[in-house]
Specification:
Length: about 230
């Protein structure tokens, strides 16, 4: 199979947003352990779901052995949250138009995300973008907890599926956090950071991404960046 290039997207705060309300990790920990989770817990953006679940559970007084024993229940509770609260999730401006153009132009599209696969697929479905991505080459947080490893895994999957050798310098990753920038550098791919998450333009600029945008609403500019990197 021939492909024009590989473009990888993060999900949360890059392509989608979920508005205000109950936090899904608080919901999961409360449902599984029957407790009120620690209210003063601080989430560091860009980590994998499994890390958030473990850290919040420990901060709420749950023993590590018990957490690990019930991790599949926590994963199921996360999916339950989005089944119940799916209307909260929405697609950010420009995303669908960009994906339509890239897929129609022959680019291979993948997601890498800290979401476990069941939850990640659900979010893509809720945002009405699932069909744009080759799910055979996507990588999720239940495979690896570091984003650099997830990017590398997606490249390996794409090489196996398409029977080609991928030049990492021509792979472009879109993400919203400084951890995304660090992951791209670790994997030796190019990164376009967008400030649609919790990190400001100034903060992201300090991590030295290859490209930096306020958001993905300027579709012509985004497509121009893809062409510059991937051809």
């Amino acid at each position: 199979m021939e492909t024009r290039g590989l473009v990888i997207f993060d999900i949360d705060h890059t392509m989608t947003e979920s508005g205000s309300g109950t936090d899904p990790f608080y919901f999961a920990v409360s449902k599984v352990f029957g407790i009120e989770p620690a209210k003063d817990f601080k989430f560091e953006t860009g980590k994998a779901d499994v890390i958030y679940l473990m850290e919040l559970s420990r901060a709420s007084g749950i023993d590590q052995i018990e957490i690990e024993k019930r991790m599949q229940e926590l994963y199921a509770a996360l999916l339950d949250f989005w089944e119940i609260n799916g209307k909260r999730l929405y697609r950010l401006a420009g995303v669908k138009e960009i994906l339509e153009y890239l897929k129609g132009s022959g680019y291979a599209l993948a997601v890498i995300t800290g979401n476990i696969e069941r939850t990640g697929r659900k979010k893509l479905e809720l945002a009405n973008v699932l069909g744009f991505f080759d799910m055979d080459i996507c990588s999720f947080g239940d495979a690896f907890v570091t984003r650099g490893r997830l990017i590398e895994e997606t490249i390996r999957k794409a090489e196996r599926k398409y029977g080609i050798r991928i030049d990492k310098r021509k792979v472009l990753y879109f993400g919203d956090s400084a951890l995304d920038v660090a992951a791209a550098k670790e994997a030796k791919v190019r990164i376009c950071a967008v400030s649609t998450g919790k990190h400001t333009m100034e903060h992201l600029n300090g991590s030295s991404p290859d490209f930096l945008l306020k958001d993905l609403s300027d579709t012509a500019k985004v497509i121009g960046i893809v062409r510059t990197v991937c051809g």
